[in-house]
Amino acid sequence: LSSQVHARGLKLGIYGDLGTLTCGGYPGTTLDLVEQDAQTFAEWGVDMLKLDGCYSSGEEQAEGYPEMARALNATGRPIVYSCSWPAYQGGLPPKVNYTILAEVCNLWRNYDDIQDSWDSVLSILDWFSANQDVLQPAAGPGHWNDPDMLVIGNFGLSYEQSRSQMALWTVMAAPLLMSTDLRTISPSAKEILQNRLMIQINQDPLGIQGRRIVKEKSHIEVFLRPLSQAASALVFFSRRTDTPFVYTTSLAKLHFPEDAVYEVQDVYSGKIISGLKTGDSFSVVINPSGVVMWYLYPMALPAQPWRLVRQQAPREGFRPVLL
Fold it and tell me: What are the Alpha galactosidase A C-terminal domain coordinates in residue numbering (predicted)?
């Protein structure tokens, strides 16, 4: 199986559980089997391991998740390591130590399992936004918060909602893991998942997780993700359920530098706006439960070069930093 998967240019992932049983009731990986299972996965040519935490105690998880990381590294095979550890500890400090997580795991599940429904997507988004001051500084190259899989291409999301999940997961620097049947996926869902600019933004080498920066009474929210080369991504998201909404703002209101000029590309339509100044007012039309997503690249830098960087101190968020 591994050879067949790799021959098609794909990677092979496998599911395990740090406990006596998996969540589905199959044999798990107890502490005495960690080294053996890691070596077996490497011999099979596995490229990614997701290790769940059903049927294990907090003490066993505190010992077993780091031990599996050491065992995987000892095999000499690069294996992406996905941990469910924080999800079993409430997802937040003091029970969850994100410094240790970043040293042990490549990605980790913080919160509830996603379901094939818009309510589930919103619940996860709400939790990540409410706790972004804790979660955002923990993410970076090689260690990511995981809001769970993309359910685009299944049955629970409309076309607009599918576009929204893709954009919001991208701006949150989430691992883009599909959960759909590729044999029956619709052309529209495939187009969303294969959006090249979207994937480029998601894979930006700075690896900074975006944040919600605006929450309006009109049920419009704005998310910002700083990118390399002084670029950035903006997502204008509507929680409305009635009609398309015209949202008017400016980059100045979104705390961009005063004297910068940008080229803007709509990530979905491809439309380009050239020469957008920070103080210029603009409007976007956002469909109900939909998004407008922009990629912004500076045509002219401000008088002092700048970039938006991740702040390490809690609750600081993003701010322009002069270089």
Answer: 207-290
